[in-house]
Amino acid sequence: MEFYVNPYDGVPVYLQIIQLVRNGVALGTLHPGDQLPTVRELAVKLAVNPNTVAKAYRDLEREGMVETVSGKGTFVREGRVGVETERLEHMVEMLVIEARNAGLTVDDLIERLEKHRQYSAKDHDQGGSS
């Protein structure tokens, strides 16, 4: 996975790194057991202070997304079902609230999710990514 940040984005770089890892896991470009670049490697690549990368990795470890193995590196964590389920449940609740505010029903959301699932399945069958 490639890491890119925009220092002019207005979002702190460490939060951008956290979001990149979260997105990588969500999109399947990062899998449980995958090793992340070392703090030093990523700091050099992104031209940021190593403390910025270390803070992102610490926050990701606190939320259960990654684990650091002394002397080996930082890895995407296995067995995160409980943590992810909680986060996804919150996201679903927020989606329902936002949909209702936009005048959509839960059935409208389900219909849209079904369309997304069909497109994702097609992309997966063709070897593409969604």
UniProtKB/TrEMBL annotation:
Keywords: DNA-binding, Transcription, Transcription regulation. It holds the Pfam family GntR. GO terms for molecular function: DNA binding; DNA-binding transcription factor activity. InterPro entries: Tscrpt_reg_HTH_GntR, WH-like_DNA-bd_sf, WH_DNA-bd_sf. It comes from the Bacteria. Residues 11-79 form the HTH gntR-type domain. PANTHER family: GNTR-FAMILY TRANSCRIPTIONAL REGULATOR, HTH-TYPE TRANSCRIPTIONAL REPRESSOR YTRA. This is GntR family transcriptional regulator. It comes from Candidatus Cryosericum hinesii. The lineage of its organism: Bacteria, Pseudomonadati, Caldisericota/Cryosericota group, Candidatus Cryosericota, Candidatus Cryosericia.
